[in-house]
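Give me the fold.
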Amino acid sequence: MKGIDTNVLVRYLVMDDEEQAKTASACIKKIADNGELCFISVIVLCELIWVLESAYEFPKNEIAGAVDKILATKQFEIESRDVVRFAVNDYREGKGDFADYVIGRKNRLIGCEFTFTFDRSLKAHDCFMLLR
């Protein structure tokens, strides 16, 4: 298994730099051709979504769709796949940031009843308890 950094994943998905996009695609293809998996950590996905939102201004539905495709790609091994799947659905439907939903879902998975937050955008989600 080989790890993939955010910048490689961004180039692979966005293809805004032709040379780096080719290199990223070739790297991922070579890993897959060798029968290995490309490991994508939760942190990389959080960074990816932040970059797609802030630098590229992609709409939330496109970003969520891209993460769905990453989750469905057999060459990618996703850290905490189920957490990511729930978090991307929360992100798609909610008002919070993807990273916040990952935090809430990971905390729930380890047994937290909820996660305290001051973030009002998360007040309607059952993984969070709003502090006032």
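The CA atoms of residues 71 and 104 lie 19 Å apart.
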